[in-house]
Amino acid sequence: MTPIEVNIERPGGEESGGRRHPNTCPTCRSHYREDELRHAQRVCPHCGHHFAVGAMERIEQLVDPGTFVEIGSDLRAADPLAFVDIKPYIDRLSAAELQTGLGDSLVAGHGRIVGRGAALAVMDFAFMGGSMGSVMGERFCLAADHAERFGVPLISVTASGGARMQENILALMQMAKTVGAVDGLREAGVPYISILAHPTTGGVIASFASLGDVVVAEPGALLSFAGPRVVEQTTGEKTAADFGRAESNLRLGQLDAVVPRRELRGELAKLLMLFSPAEDEPTGDNEPLMTIVEGDANPIDKVLGRLGLGRRRG
Amino acid sequence: MVRVSDEVRRLRKRFEARAEESHIWDAVQLARNPDRPYTLDYAERLFTDAFELRGDRAFSDDEALITMLARYHGQTVVAIGHQKGRDLSERTRRMFGMPHPEGYRKAMRAVELAERLGYPILTFVDTPGAYPGVNAEERGQAGMIARSILSFCQASVPIVATVIGEGGSGGALAIAVADRVLMQQNAIYSVISPEGCAAILWKDSGQARKAAYAFRPTANACLDLGVIDRIVEEPKGGAHEDVDAAAKLLDDAIRHALQQAEMIPAAERRRARRAKFRQMGVWGVVDEPTGDIG
Q1: Which of A104, A293, B278, B281 has the most other CB atoms within 10 Å of its CB?
Q2: Does B149 contact A187 at a Cβ distance shorter than 8 Å?
């Protein structure tokens, strides 16, 4: 990684007491222009704090340029309960779509990472707190379907407060549905890599996100079933500063690694290599195409999948 | 432009018509009634013989969740259920029916046993939720719930789950993935407690009644949404009014559901169960060009 030149503005050190600009680092208070932060993969060049990354930007960071194909982008939440709290659910959905440009809290698809094909399910915390509802669950399953069909690993990147209350019981059922999709991958012998970003809590970490064959997290990410506030309010227990953080989870045996964002693409490429058959060259240029065909998927689909391509919509 | 299916329109209409229903809050109260029969009350009446399996063989025995080998209508089954306590000391010992990770590890041990010996699994769901404490978190609460759900997905033996009281969130679902899911008439099943929902969306847990109206944790709503297969009637006034009668009604429903689950060929059960949960959820489709390259 080449060093990144940035202008670091110090906002004077005074406690601004309240709202902080989204591009101001909450840890060291350095402030960045949008293009600087984007170029730095939203990792503070000064102190290493990991800012939130939207789904599309995350895909750009991880996937070879021009290889990503989205699946299920036309799905939208349907509000079966006609749910209204302080605001109607439908209004919250439109506001979230306007704000993020996404149809829901997860983007599914497939692409190549350093030449190797993978299915992707990437969450966006900015869309209603990355909450899991029917559309998110279905999109995750579409990504898993792609992985199973083309025999490529599934990679998920999660950032979620948990299940979406506005869909109540249907949101809860997405936990069973997504775990079912992971079960399908296990039955088919397809690897699943789960990347946990800040925060991954509630119904998402208590379902598919914990079930990766490899589970890695970004530094400092909060990864817990109940958040610290819920724990303190419900049980009266005090939570330590490192409660539920990625580093604690690693120490407690819940993770394989804590990987800084700048190293993530490289580590993923290594894992995809390790999960691929021996002597498998990533570009596919010199591959004996027909010898890799096995199982019940259409041979051409499998070859295309290995090359990170698809010939039909998920 | 979002196209919403007729099915969703039908559901919305039905729910809008029911918006004023006062029985939603009644169900919440009945589901939590301290006299309501718990798993052990039904086990006593449904099973001729039973032997409790205790401990997760790794850390401890979590009494908020019980597992047993039992004889049900002449065949051996594995029963798994949350268990709340009746008096204060028992409630404390059983953590009000809120399991720690070791409870789910014990459940997984029971599922593995059932799978290996070919016994059907009956579960009884009655928990406010998995215990949200520091120790539970440190021992991997989230991952254990996920693995418990996975073990229920993977089993090839018949599974019947019944929500008998509070079906609270992931802590309930951890033992509720089944071939047939039943729910007692006055039970509730929801992604979060009405109080929790109110605290987050209304910023005031005192708005629990409003939250309950908005998110409908009732058996009727769960049936309409395709989440459960059947509502099990309760005696007039609720299951606690006549526990024997409630057990009889539950027995008939479980026996019938078990017969249905047994009709699915063992080799297909895992896929069939997966497919059952795969179809849960509703959404619309927008007309937009997709990023298709093919």
Answers
A1: A104
A2: no
Identify which of B232, B248, B241 has the alpha carbon closest to the alpha carbon of residue B45.
B248
Q: Where are the domains of chain A?
A: 20-51, 52-280, 282-314
CATH of A52-280 among 3.30.465.10, 3.90.226.10, 3.40.50.2300, 3.30.70.420: 3.90.226.10
Contact call for A176 and B177, based on CB within 8 A: yes
**Distance between CA atoms of A272 and A277, rounded to whole angstroms?**
10
- Chain A residue whose CA is closest to B288: A74
Region A206-225: mean pLDDT is 98
Phi, psi of B124 (to 5 degrees): -125, 115
Please, what's the b/e burial string for A83-106 (b: 16 or more CB within 10 A of its CB; e: otherwise)?
A: bbbeeebbebbeebbeebebbbbb
- B221 and A169 within 8 Å at the Cβ level: the answer is yes
Nearest to B261 by CA among B253, A268, B188: B253
Predicted TM-score of the model (pTM): 0.89
Q: Which residues of B270-291 are buried (b: 16+ CB within 10 A; e: fewer)?
A: bbebbebbbebbbbbeeeeeee
- Give me the amino acid identity at A91: D
CATH number of B21-278: 3.90.226.10
Here the tokens at position A151 are: 């025999």
pLDDT-derived band at A290 (thresholds 50, 70, 90) equals very low
The mean pLDDT value for A182-191 works out to 98
Tell me the pLDDT tens digit for each residue of B171-197: 999 999 999 999 999 999 999 999 989
Closest residue to B137, CB basis, from A135, A203, A225 = A225
Span A288-303, mean pLDDT?
49
Q: What is the mean pLDDT of chain A?
A: 88
ipTM attached to this prediction: 0.93
Q: A135: which chain B residues are within 8 Å (Cβ-Cβ)?
A: 281, 283
Q: Which residue has the higher pLDDT, A178 or A287?
A: A178
